[in-house]
């Protein structure tokens, strides 16, 4: 006989394997603090949100982890290139909305689970919408979207109201590699703190594209950025349109021929223009399951989870599968000067001779900022606003002035905002280099 | 003679095929050759128990397009299956589990052929193995019964079939990959940061001449020319200069290399708007990696020193080519030139010229290896030039998996081996404890093995630990056993609560890893584990062991 008592679980024999584990404290949880009899009921009520490219895996996993009320947000429609890994979709589904098709499939397959789809962007909803969920699981395909949901959840978190603190579980993959992490908003390192884990890719210098190409990628990027702009074969570039890609491919080929460069293919053209990341079902399985495993542990408290607050407690798992199998599971420390969850302003080294315009442009490539349309205020004064147009026009003359001329000195605190991150203020304290 | 330079692809009349579009994201990882290998693969899953982890693995093999799969499963679908296995639904209740799984998995990819067994009372695993087309790989999950396990092991030995064991229970799992004998991988796909062999300390005449021509009046070059010298040429020039002032010797230790690097930095012109030269920055950055004397990479060394048990005629083409490369290496003191050149700031024309110099030499070396290989193979065997090319390009990164250590080493799969690994892991743990490193996951592996040994769902923690003791036999001292029991205590307790059942997330995660490893074995690309991976779902960590 098993040494652990079987506490009342769900009536159905269906959930036997799950209940054996989630209603019992196991060896790593203090049995005194654990009430297995309420786990199922509690989990039945949890609203959980899943979003993104790992969506199929996440939905399947959550449904078979005992969650009954799942919502899924995805703005994408199904493309043929998704079918090698997004397994809830069939050939006949190409063109339909992912969220809808996935939700229907899993509801039919796993009885008793309600899945509410939203065919739109996560940014289309406000804090009030997100307030209804207890856990958020993300498998998004852009760093911007991750930063947005992170900022939203951190802004909502108020330690006086425990319900407002919603764990964010985030997963991402690239080829044979991936990561799964757990963020407890304000209580530990957040996505913004962890921005240094995703360095922006260095762009090819313009002079290389324009005059000294050497690689097939240089020819493709030339066609993409320079030739397209000049010749405008179609009013708007649609990266998913094979006709547009073919035009770019032919142009890149011509250029490559001119410089005696070999290796331009349709596939590499598409890859460069769309910034395609290789993806397979296997890696997605690993990362999505790692995320949902944490969700189950958080929801049931039946075992310690990643992101547990405390000294040395890991919150981040990196996975690598191309050379044997490696995981590195560690604690990423919260940053005091994190613009989203931190308290202090971040130090920013600048050249006093820079114009305001140069400073603004630098925010795009600065690893700890990565802001594409920043607006800047300094100690109460507005220096430059991207929006609204009237304010932009009013502040435009400041762009030509140097930081010195604008009265900025070492130690001045500037406040930067960006439309991609509503509600977040990036505070920097200037240092002159 | 093999062509390494790719010709310009003629403009396409129509875009990529539908299959190429579907598989686009994975073709970027293993190319058409890998895909072809997958599509010829015939995979058997022998399923049992909660029956999920093997199915999740299959899902990840069917989606990328293996040729065929067969599921052998004696169970009928019951209620508990529906709470853990995604590829069963209400309509399957009471039916043969193998049949339903094959059907719902089959939906994932219409191009994959699927079958199931046993269809009648007379169908056994033995009969399935006899009548089926040859299996490319076989995986089985615990709690497989020992009769079936024996037939699989027999089959694997006879047909040299890779065998994969998988066990997922509660928050823990492991899987073991046993390829048939020593398994070589040529196409290991080294990381971008891996050193490119530019042969700066051992340049050949054409490269020397090219560099000399560009730099014979280096100080007299105008700023444009100077600023567009490829860094390979810069380094060759200054290495020559160094040699002349150091008795013909190259920079040999760290101190000299940093001195050399500074020399290169100082040679950059600063009287320009940028205040420096990008190509000289590139040259300085490349010094430590490229100004390094040649040493035979350990993977290749292992290949060269491998002791064969079979005569040369029976060896695979890999070994024939390896022998030919060894001959090349013995003759020239260097490996065949891989021939790729990293990107660097340079005029397009000059860069292409440089590339061609490297490609020409690489082609020449490959041709020499091909000739040697053909001589070794003899008249009866044809050597594929493309295979020779692949080896020459990747020689520095080839790897052997599943090598039986000779001599005193304990055989893989033996009790003695388990003890040996256990002792090594316990010793590591003592250090780990002091240095705040993570502890070994070996106790998890042992606990799962112990559970399988007990073979029943109601095994409690004491029984599991006792079973492990039997597995290890009595060669452990009482102190060692005490240590082990302490480490296993929590794991065995946590395992016991699962009652030999699977948690979907753990099985999905494990299924991802197993599929990834099987893809590596089938495509012979990327480096497989050697040979067991354990997953700890409580700490979210993996560890690989050689058992």
UniProtKB/TrEMBL annotation, chain A:
Enzyme Commission code(s) on record: 6.2.1.64
Any one GO biological process: protein neddylation
Gene Ontology MF annotations: ATP binding; NEDD8 activating enzyme activity
Reaction(s) this enzyme catalyzes, per UniProt: ATP + [NEDD8 protein] + [E1 NEDD8-activating enzyme]-L-cysteine = AMP + diphosphate + [E1 NEDD8-activating enzyme]-S-[NEDD8 protein]-yl-L-cysteine
Biological pathway: Protein modification; protein neddylation
InterPro entries: E2-binding (IPR014929), ThiF/MoeB/HesA (IPR045886), ThiF_NAD_FAD-bd (IPR000594), Ub_act_enz_dom_a_sf (IPR023318), Uba3_N (IPR030468), Ubiquitin-activating_enz (IPR035985)
Residue ranges constituting the E2 binding domain according to the UniProt record: 348-433
The keyword Methyltransferase is annotated on this UniProt entry: no
Top EC class for this record: ligase
Alphabetic keyword roster: ATP-binding, Ligase, Nucleotide-binding, Ubl conjugation pathway
Listed SUPFAM superfamilies: Activating enzymes of the ubiquitin-like proteins
Segments forming a coiled coil: none
Function according to Swiss-Prot or TrEMBL: Catalytic subunit of the dimeric E1 enzyme, which activates NEDD8.
Family to which the UniProt record says this protein belongs: Belongs to the ubiquitin-activating E1 family. UBA3 subfamily.
Protein name per UniProt: NEDD8-activating enzyme E1 catalytic subunit
Organism: Neurospora tetraspora
Automatic annotation (TrEMBL), chain B:
Entry GO CC: cytoplasm
Pathway(s): Protein modification; protein neddylation
Keyword Nucleotide-binding attached: no
Cross-referenced CDD domains: APPBP1_RUB
Keywords assigned: Ubl conjugation pathway
Coiled coil: none
GO terms under biological process: protein neddylation
Superkingdom as given in the UniProt entry: Eukaryota
UniProt GO molecular function: NEDD8 activating enzyme activity
InterPro entries according to UniProt: APP-BP1 (IPR030667), ThiF/MoeB/HesA (IPR045886), ThiF_NAD_FAD-bd (IPR000594), Ubiquitin-activating_enz (IPR035985)
Residues annotated as domain THIF-type NAD/FAD binding fold: 23-546
Chain's role: Regulatory subunit of the dimeric UBA3-ULA1 E1 enzyme.
Family: Belongs to the ubiquitin-activating E1 family. ULA1 subfamily.
Protein name: NEDD8-activating enzyme E1 regulatory subunit
Native organism taxonomy: Eukaryota, Fungi, Dikarya, Ascomycota, Pezizomycotina
